[in-house]
Amino acid sequence: MSKNSLKKIRESILMSKAELARKANVSPITISRIEQGLPLLPQDHWHISYS
Description:
By secondary structure, the chain is mainly α. It has helices at residues 5-12, 17-24, 28-36.
């Protein structure tokens, strides 16, 4: 995934960083880091909930 792909996808479905962070069980800061192409911190992890 390129640097801004996540942001483009998230914005195309009108989802906020906070909402995506809740669904992925990560912090909004983690979403920002991913969207900026920054490395994740060791404690960052993903758990996407489809509910």
